[in-house]
Amino acid sequence: GENVEQHPSTLSVQEGDSAVIKCTYSDSASNYFPWYKQELGKGPQLIIDIRSNVGEKKDQRIAVTLNKTAKHFSLHITETQPEDSAVYFCAASRSGGGADGLTFGKGTHLIIQP
Amino acid sequence: NAGVTQTPKFRVLKTGQSMTLLCAQDMNHEYMYWYRQDPGMGLRLIHYSVGEGTTAKGEVPDGYNVSRLKKQNFLLGLESAAPSQTSVYFCASSYSGSDTGELFFGEGSRLTVL
């Protein structure tokens, strides 16, 4: 089955700086790569996703890049703000996010220092 | 719309006791899922359902049973709780016709087994 590795487990950055979280996956057939944000006491929420036919996708301050050859994808957050503090999960799926769900990474706790 | 609602939000059990977690969604989603979240382990899929009357095993199904008698509800049962089942449980749903497969999560149910 799919195996998703996520690094780092904890990331502390100064407010206004950029943050980068990296993930690798094992199944070359995976074609859908979402990122979820989990705020304290809440369930995860999708913030951005990318499919294997696209190399990069941006949405305001967040962007995701995908390197299919290396089986590697990353989340980039620019101009970090206090509300970016949360746990971020990457995930991968070979079914485009279908019924068998996603394989998640173990999460990155992002801390934005004032 | 309430989205995905989980009950109860907190529960303490003794080893060997049984209980049922209820998940309800009002988005008319076909797919529903139960995940468990443990420190340093990310989100792991327990069971999922592709429609009313159907269920399937995920990554960590042992010790759990599920039922999907109505499209809007997905029940997770523990017949004989064990301390290893102490966790935060998340229910999620998704739309089968979506090309993104976005998961909509509930706010979680924290279970402690003594």
What topology emerges from the helices and strands here?
The complex is a heterodimer of chains A (114) and B (114).
Chain A: E1 4-7, E2 10-14, E3 19-25, E4 32-38, E5 45-51, E6 56-59, E7 62-67, E8 72-77, E9 86-92, E10 103-104, E11 108-113
Parallel strand pairs in A: 2-11
Antiparallel strand pairs in A: 1-3, 3-8, 4-5, 4-9, 6-7, 7-8, 9-10, 9-11
Chain B: E1 4-7, E2 10-13, E3 19-25, E4 31-38, E5 42-49, E6 56-57, E7 65-67, E8 73-78, E9 87-94, E10 104-105, E11 109-113
Parallel strand pairs in B: 2-11
Antiparallel strand pairs in B: 1-3, 3-8, 4-5, 4-9, 5-6, 7-8, 9-10, 9-11
Q: Care to describe what's here?
A:
The complex is a heterodimer of chains A (114) and B (114). Chain A has 114 residues and is mainly β. Chain A has no helices and eleven strands. In chain A, the strands form two sheets. In chain A, strands 2, 4, 5, 9, 10 and 11 form a six-stranded mixed sheet that branches. Chain A has a five-stranded antiparallel sheet with strand order 1-3-8-7-6, with no helix packed on it. Chain B is an all-beta fold and 114 residues long. Helices cover 0% and strands 50% of the residues of chain B. Chain B is globular and about 40 Å long. In chain B, the strands form two sheets. In chain B, strands 2, 4, 5, 6, 9, 10 and 11 form a seven-stranded mixed sheet that branches. Chain B has a four-stranded antiparallel sheet with strand order 1-3-8-7, with no helix packed on it. At the A-B interface, β4, β5 and β10 of A face β4, β5 and β9 of B.
